Amino acid sequence: MKIILMGAPGTGKGTQSNFIKEKFNIPKITLGDLLRSKNTIKNEKIRKKINLIISSGKLVNDEIIFDLIKKRIYKKDCEKGFLLDGFPRTMKQAYFIKKEKIKIDYVIEFFMSTELIIKRILGRKIHIPSGRIYHSIFNPPIKEDIDDITGEKLTERNDDNILSIKKRIQEYKKFSKKLIKFYIKENKKKNIKYFRINTSISILEIQKKIKEILL
Ligand code: ADP
Ligand code: AMP
Questions:
Q1: Does residue 59 contact residue 102 with C-beta atoms inside 8 Å?
Q2: Cα-atom radius of gyration of the chain, to the nearest Å?
Q3: Model-level pTM?
Q4: Cis peptide before 9 (omega within 30 of 0)
Q5: CA 22 – ligand 1 centroid, Å
Q6: Which member of 21, 36, 72, 89 is catalytic?
Q7: Strand partners, 30
Q8: d(CA 43, ligand 1 centre) in Å
Q9: Do residues 47 and 97 lie in contact, with contact meaning Cβ atoms separated by under 8 Å?
Q10: Is the Cα torsion angle 206, 95, 45, 29 positive or negative in sign?
């Protein structure tokens, strides 16, 4: 099962990726996490450059993205399937998937109002080592700012500020229209199955919808 999860920042992709990964036993490939990780971007100079781009809310250039994707999806654990979270974001990235002859089964698009996106992102707290995602109001940890499982401190992403959020939403709007059109066409040709979910509902309700699609 090969799945693409699309959606503007803050629509709940990471939260549901964690669920899909566990439920369907497939690895999740989260581009944002790969770009932020010291393990994948070993060169400090390049990592600093990437951090600056991420903080500004712009997209990282394709060469870096394609390199990361190639290194990840051809690993053994991806043989039976994987979930792509945050890739593709542009038509060039969608063509890359075609060129690599990767057969995607499902594209699920999350959507929500901009107002709610901002509320969701501004309360986001993350546990970096595990990828667990919380929200200070909507999905709080048991103890404030502490990961439920490890007891370690939660952090905020440094691009989760209003300026960067607005830029990221703008970038998403700029690139996603063509991408969505493309996948709707692919759906008509029966090359993939395309679904949309309004993610302004609860985490559990979204999980239910995902199960209906994938089971
Ligand atoms: P994305 O990966 O699309 O940027 P996240 O999964 O990180 O989005 O979610 C953004 C924020 O919204 C997080 O703080 C998360 O806890 C919270 N969140 C995710 N889904 C829901 C939901 N259905 N209801 C309320 N809050 C949610
Ligand atoms: P995310 O964690 O998905 O919110 O992504 C954080 C940031 O990483 C984005 O704002 C971009 O700067 C960068 N990024 C993530 N995925 C991609 C991608 N597919 N192409 C280019 N840049 C990306």
A1: no
A2: 17
A3: 0.97
A4: no
A5: 17
A6: 89
A7: 85
A8: 30
A9: no
A10: positive
Tell the residue number behind the tokens 């549901």, with chain if given.
16
Domain ranges of the chain: 2-113+161-214
Which amino acid belongs to residue 212? E
How many whole angstroms separate alpha carbon 166 and alpha carbon 57?
8
Q: How many CB atoms lie within 10 A of CB 203?
A: 15
Which residue type is seen at 102? I
One CATH from 2.30.29.30, 3.40.50.300, 3.10.20.30, 3.40.50.720 for 2-113+161-214: 3.40.50.300
Tell me if 179 CB under 6 Å of ligand 1: no
Write out residues in the chain with pLDDT < 70, as ranges: none
Q: Which of 111, 112, 60 is nearest to 89 (CA)?
A: 60
Per-residue model confidence (pLDDT) at position 131: 94
Predicted pLDDT at 99: 96
Using omega within 30 degrees of 0 as the cis cutoff, is the peptide bond preceding 27 cis?
no
Angle of CA points 81, 87, 91, to nearest 5°: 120
Would you give the DSSP letter of residue 154?
A: P
Q: Which two tokens stand for residue 24?
A: 């369907």
